[in-house]
């Protein structure tokens, strides 16, 4: 037995060397980190619990290391940090049990500096002045800063850019304090720190957000310099608190009251005070108003606003095990809300508006709604809401509804209460006001306000669409180019968007990555070009840089952004027009519902562009031809309403067959997804598998596979766990046979061991032994002559085909299937039902040998464009099920730190805020 184990170890060692030299799927699709700063007015025994909740909520942004710094009433700091994820370290480091008045925390995705304790954040410095802090982002001149800081007398203990930032602040703070005569008065110290932060911003190169704390004044500063940063105010234990975080969902777990921050601003705060300043000279565009201009150090007035999201929106519902699963199934509702916006609002909302108009009460309730929305605190909101409940106007409306609109009163209201299915952007405000117990009067009033808010959202959205149409009309008329620029999942959405605009509107949209745009088009753009940036977070650094480059050219180029967060850097600052994708919060790192809402919005914009082009640009087309095209576009527009139900039908009917496919391929080391014409779908599906399963996966247009990538079929050197298992089983049989023959021929045990070792050397390095006896040498040569050792490593290669129902696309897919399966491919098809396609996929080309195949039948639409929606859902589910299976398998095998998880896979981050 020990001999077999020794041989197995030799085999695994050799395999590891070969695989290392041949195939390592390395990918870094996202870098994030997360930084936190929490201030209370006095020491709380529960500060460690709050810190732990915050750190765990940021785990998806980084889990290489975790750190927390706590300060009480004096200047002593408790600093706890180490390598590892917050879900583990908040317990093992004792973070949960800490008390404190101030907390600064960080989760790290390593960029500068190895993954070790020295490079973990926060950093405490005392070279010249006592400070502590942490950052999120990437400071690219870190090596130069380390040399400079060391020359200036700082003791730098790590290679981490976060430490360079804190030391740099310390350096300039020391200079300002000396210049001011080393004041002890707190306000004077703060003045010195503000100037130090301005000087630091000039010294650092890169994109970051940071929290710095000065222990004497017990004041915190948070800087937003090209990376995401959010700030919230609220109450804990009956005390005011202030919270800075690089993640919005972390803040929402504690408060809905936010102060919006923009790039180039920093905020000075403690528990009950804040002030925003300009870190550099700033200029912000404003619509129909003079630009905002601030010099470095200027105060920037900011009022808190109430978030339209709630903490409940970012919690995992009990019927789901993973956020990714919840968000895949949430696409029915998220696209439904968007489609309602396209259609001018929900039916129940429009009926409510009719009732308000009939009773001449619209103006009254609009006034009251604005009063509610302008009030920041919940208690005054409830008081106002209750007073409206007791008003004569409400009694009049309620009575009229019971008579004229019983459906609103009895059906829609109750259903909305049970499902919390409001449509407006302010829905959470109204949900908070109705309470948890069913009260028809409170629910009805909430529905009134929801309907009015929804109407306002519809009006704002339609205005933004009209502005978009003006911009694209200008580009088309001037025969210029329109580009969609995006990264990752958003880029794949723009690939599908280009398909929509081409097929529906006949308008060319060039989808391109930011780096490729810089390399291939940046010097070719001209006046009247149109730039459409797409980003879920609105903080994608690559995209922000391109927008800055375009702005610097001073050309007449308009910039549109499609974002989920209008308060983001792209949403607030970089575009001439921002259109919200309205997918709601998305917690899992792999994007799903944001992608679905992006392609839904692009589908709608393509339809509206086609209508605009028909009516305003096609002057030479006869009225009869126009009418025919109008009818086609109207039919196309009607398909919008089908999208949520198409997603729902896919989710209901395909999970079992998808799970069966996942069971076959989840441990395969490499997969190709081949889509006929709809390559964006294949690319996004492959990204989901790469992100969550950590298997190599590549998506491409199907016909391209035969132009080189098909060399992976048949014999190759991409070996997975199943290949290794088959090899070791076969090799075990060979060794057993060698032992049996050797014993029969009287070969010594020593010579038998030499044969075994020689076989391993021969298999992996091709070497022939010279130290065997005559009989042993004969047995060795017979053994290698009779065995093809590598044959058991070879497996059929999984190909997943995606096609729409168009006849040409189906025929091309059939051609690809037959071309590739005879060369060693297994076949998995995602398509609407088609007998010919099914027969070609299922037919075994290997005459009784194993052949893997399956067919996911999509809901019938007869429309290749709608296949983009249903097929994308299937691939999302496939990635989820593969990830869960592989995660559980590796856990069972006790593989440590494997990083496979559908919500927080290793190496990736939700928002890419570094270069």
Strand content: 15-25%
Name of the level-1 CATH class of the largest domain: Alpha Beta
CATH-level-4 superfamily name of the largest domain? Aminohydrolase, N-terminal nucleophile (Ntn) domain
End-to-end distance: 53 Å
**What is the CATH fold-level name of the largest domain?**
Glutamine Phosphoribosylpyrophosphate, subunit 1, domain 1
Question: How many strand segments?
Answer: 27
Strand order of the largest sheet: 3-2-4-1-10-9-11-17
Globally, the shape reads globular
Could you explain how this protein is built, in words?
This protein has 915 residues and is of the alpha/beta class. The protein has five domains: 34-306, Glutamine Phosphoribosylpyrophosphate, subunit 1, domain 1 (4-Layer Sandwich); 344-458, no CATH class; 478-644, Rossmann fold (3-Layer(aba) Sandwich), CATH 3.40.50; 654-714 and 797-892, Glucose-6-phosphate isomerase like protein, domain 1 (Rossmann fold), CATH 3.40.50; 723-793. The strands form five sheets. The protein has an eight-stranded antiparallel beta sheet. Helix 10 crosses helix 16 and helix 18 runs parallel beside helix 19. The longest helix has 38 residues, at 440-477. The protein is globular and about 105 Å long. It starts with a helix and ends in a 23-residue tail after the last helix. This is SIS domain-containing protein.
Task: Give a brief rundown of this model.
With 915 residues, the chain is an alpha/beta fold.
